[in-house]
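User: I've been trying to design a sequence by hand for this structure and keep getting stuck. Would you show me what you'd pick, starting by listing the structure so we're on the same page?

Assistant: Good idea, let's start from the same input. This is the structure you sent:
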């Protein structure tokens, strides 16, 4: 494959995510693979909850928005996105993206998936984009 052929392929990325981690799987540029971690940890939740439940919910919302914003910043260069994982985080993130016009031209697929090893996640992404 020549460099020009590689550049004409659609830029696809799969993101396995839950409420605390997002693993990127760029099958064309593996150097773009990374993990983004939410700052809303169990310790943060416990500390905020010890003050008040309202504070904990506000803190959680702020930190989830920051987590989603960090993920969103990395996907702007892609044309096709696969969101998959075991929790509702992928659906929540999909709704987050739908509210922002910057992502209107990115095709987004959402698929359920159980906990997986990194190799299983990579194979899942390859299989998804190869069948398209």
């Amino acid at each position: 494959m020549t460099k020009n052929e590689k550049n004409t392929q659609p830029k696809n990325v799969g993101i396995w995510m839950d409420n605390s981690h997002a693993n990127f799987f760029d099958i064309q540029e593996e150097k773009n693979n990374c993990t983004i971690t939410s700052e809303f940890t169990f310790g943060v939740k416990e500390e905020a909850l010890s003050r008040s439940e309202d504070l904990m919910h506000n803190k959680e919302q702020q930190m989830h928005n920051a987590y989603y914003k960090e993920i969103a910043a990395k996907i702007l260069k892609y044309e096709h996105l696969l969101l998959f994982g075991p929790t509702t985080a992928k659906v929540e993130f999909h709704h987050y993206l739908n509210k922002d016009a910057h992502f209107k031209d990115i095709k987004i697929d959402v698929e359920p998936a159980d906990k997986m090893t990194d190799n299983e996640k990579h194979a899942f992404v390859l299989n998804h984009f190869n069948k398209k």
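That's my pick for every position. To get oriented when you compare it with your attempt: Residues 53-75 form the longest helix (23 residues). Confidence is low (pLDDT under 50) at residues 1-6.
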